[in-house]
Amino acid sequence: LRPTSVHGNGRGLTKTLARIASLPIIALPRGGRTLVPFCHVENVAHGVYCALQADGHIDEPIIVAAERSIPLRDALERLRDSNKKQSMLVVGIPILLFKGVAKAADFLLGLLGRSPIFGEDRLRVLIDDTEFNISKAEDLLGYKPLVRADEGFET
Hints:
By secondary structure, the protein is an alpha/beta fold.
């Protein structure tokens, strides 16, 4: 099974997004409209359950995700709403500027002996729309997401 960007109460991704959502002004490439394939942790557990119940051997990757991707901005707004924060201002910044700042931040963190925040994969998620097809999980495992794409963004 290959889950997509896993979120849910207590998950590292959710905590990181909640910190970002708490800021009054957020600068994101494409103004936060990039589609991200979030998957709630309950959907991952359900996917594992479905795989254990499935007949036969499956020797290919199966995507476990929500039914659709949602804009990063929407996920941040839901986290902000769940924490009863005032509205946020999302400012679009040029992709090249964002990449430069991200690489500089990772370089500085490396000098401090800390792990980078951004890598090529994370940058790609913030810049390029990502959609995954879950029909294989539906057909082979009987999987249906329990938590919709726009739900479960509470901290």
